[in-house]
Amino acid sequence: MTTNIEGDIWYWHHNVSECYYHIQLTIKYRKSLFVKQTEEKLLETIRGLKERYAIEISHVGFDKNHVHILCRFLPKYSGGQVIKLIKSITAKMVFKDLPEVKKQLWGGEFWTDGYYIATVSRRGDKTIIEKYIENQGRKEDIHQLKLFEI
Known about the structure:
The chain is an alpha+beta fold and 150 residues long. It contains five helices and seven strands; from the N terminus they run E-E-E-E-H-H-E-E-H-H-E-H. The strands form two sheets. Strands 5-6-4-7 form a four-stranded antiparallel sheet. A three-stranded antiparallel sheet has the order 1-2-3, with no helix packed on it. A hairpin with a 3-residue loop joins strand 5 and strand 6. The protein is elongated and about 55 Å long.
C-alpha cells in the first residue's frame, strides 16, 4: 500500500485526505475492565493497524468502561468498516491473551454494538465550513448560489 503523509494531509494514489475521526467504543455491559493490563493489550493491538490497513491512530484515552480514539484512515474505508475492524481485532486479541476478561463478559463479546464517531479537521468546525461554502463563487455571481439545508 503506497501512501505519502505530509503533516495532516494524506496522499494516496489520486486522492488527498485530511480527515481525522473521534471514535468512542464501550465495553459490553459497561463493565469496568480497562485496567493497566487490558489497556496495554489494546494499545499493542492497534499499533499494527497503520501498516496493515492504513489506519493511523494518534491518540487513545481510557476510562474504566470505554475508550476514545483519534484516528485517520484512507477514504476507501467507511467509518463503520474501520470501527468493525478495530472492534474485531482488539476483542480477539484481548480474549486470546487475557482469558480472564472473557469470563467477566458472559455473552462472549468485548464491545457493545454501538459506537460514536465524528469527523475532525484542522480546516474548522461546521460553521466555518458552511461560511466557506456560502462564499464560493465570484462576487458578482454570489447571489446565484443557493445553499439548501437537507
